[in-house]
């Protein structure tokens, strides 16, 4: 089977924008992202939801394109795909930032306690829930504006998608009504 990737060219172009930290890091993450794809059957007539992405933890969707797609349906499908890509980029970037800052926090706290990264048996040291609660609180506080902005944009996009879905439903109903009148 040939593997199908949602928004293939857009997917790889936008990946380069949100990943930072050098060309090697880019290709490492590009491999991780591009290897998490799935393949719906070619004769499918529905949207397909894939397995969770390794970085964002979101499930990618391959949107069905009907043969006689109207301009309004096309606009809706493209907005949904664009919103999915935007959401994917945000959460992949947010999760990478979270993991890096969490690791830095743990290492700094262990160092301040005079402990190494590993214990005597070679196991990676961890902090207890109370110690980690300081990191979680600080991370959420530091990213409050970013999350608020994300939520605002998410609501705008989803309201627009819902409105377009209603328009498409009405358009289809009018078309069916028109066909019934022609037949009568």
Chain-wise SSE layout:
Blueprint: H1 8-18, H2 23-34, E1 48-49, E2 61-62, H3 71-112, H4 129-142, H5 144-183
Antiparallel strand pairs: 1-2
Helix pairs in contact: 1-3, 3-4, 3-5
Structure description:
The protein has helices at residues 8-18, 23-34, 71-112, 129-142, 144-183; strands at 48-49, 61-62. With 184 residues, the protein is mostly helical. The chain has one domain (8-183). The protein has a two-stranded antiparallel sheet with strand order 1-2. The relative contact order is 0.09.
Question: Would you kindly provide a brief summary of this structure?
Answer:
The protein is mainly alpha-helical. It is built from five helices and two strands.
What sort of overall outline do the alpha carbons produce when their principal axes are compared? elongated
Q: Which regions have little confidence, pLDDT < 50, spanning 5+ residues?
A: 1-35
Number of helices: 5
Percent in strands? under 5%
Class computed from helices, strands and strand pairing: mainly alpha
Name the average pLDDT. 83
Number of strands: 2
Give the radius of gyration: 23 Å
Share of helix, binned: 55-70%
Order of strands across the main sheet: 1-2
- Major sheet: size, sense and barrel closure? 2 strands, antiparallel
- Our measurement of the CA-to-CA distance between the termini, rounded to an integer number of angstroms, reads 47 Å
Tally of structural domains:
1
Organism: Leptobrachium leishanense
Membrane topology: Peripheral membrane protein
Subcellular location: Mitochondrion inner membrane
InterPro entries: COA8 (IPR018796)
